Amino acid sequence: MSEGKMNICLVEDEISIAKLLIYDLKNAGYNVVHYANGMDAKFGINTQAFDVFIVDWMIPQLSGLELVKIIRHFKSDAIIMMLTAKDDESDVLEAFEAGVDDYIRKPFSPRELLARVNAHLRKHQNNDLKTISYMDVECNLLTREMFVKHVAVSCTKKEFDLMAYLLSNVNIVLTRDDILNELWNFDYDGDTRIVDVHIFKLRNKLEFSSLSIESKRGVGYVLQAKK
């Protein structure tokens, strides 16, 4: 692949859709590697350094959801976008819990998908600050590592982004809409419980911290010192 370009892994079994996306993404300056089934993608994802994964849910041999779990396990900082005709709230929640950063329903506009890719990458690359911290919790924005009491804590990309956002707003109550708009960039019309899922996971990681994420009933969440 060409040096200096962002690399995208596209996993899509509908060839007509794949060709269209490959054409648009390459015209936008991205390198694109395409896999038509889950097993080929599973064995191919570690052969190259990909910045973005665009994965269709309903692919043969290994489902897109299972592939997402594998990608997230080995590439915690990757940007993962799910393409699917599934639109039930339970499906949306399941995808985000598996580790996707974006959920795009079919049929979709290739221009919108490209805009979403660009937005995710802009946010991913915006690392002007090196660290953000409060009391005994720190997020290194360059290495994208989270530390509690100077000990590295494993976290997904979205968990890291949420922790950094909370650290930027200590003692400020953030609504679920605030968090959705900050972390997902675009309007999210699914179940806002996806925020609760990520908050629950972060609370477990802060078990031994001097900070806690408190619920404000009917409003949202606030990061503050434990009382």
Q: Could you describe the 3D structure shown?
A:
- It is a single chain.
- This protein folds into 2 domains: 7-125, Rossmann fold (3-Layer(aba) Sandwich), CATH 3.40.50; 131-225, Winged helix-like DNA-binding domain superfamily/Winged helix DNA-binding domain (Arc Repressor Mutant, subunit A).
- It contains 8 helices and 12 strands.
- The protein has helices spanning 15-27, 38-44, 64-74, 89-98, 110-125, 157-167, 176-184, 193-205; strands at 7-11, 31-35, 52-56, 79-84, 102-105, 131-134, 137-140, 145-148, 151-153, 174-175, 211-216, 220-225.
- The strands form 3 sheets. Strands 2-1-3-4-5 form a 5-stranded parallel sheet, with helices on both faces.
- It is globular and about 55 Å long.
- The termini are far apart.
CATH superfamily of the largest domain, by name, is Response regulator
Percent of residues in beta strands = 15-25%
Mass-distribution shape? globular
Biggest sheet architecture: 5 strands, parallel
The CATH first-level class of the largest domain comes to Alpha Beta
Task: Assign the CATH architecture of the largest domain.
Answer: 3-Layer(aba) Sandwich
The count of β-strands is 12
Task: Provide a quick synopsis of the model.
By secondary structure, the chain is an alpha/beta fold. The protein contains eight helices and twelve strands.
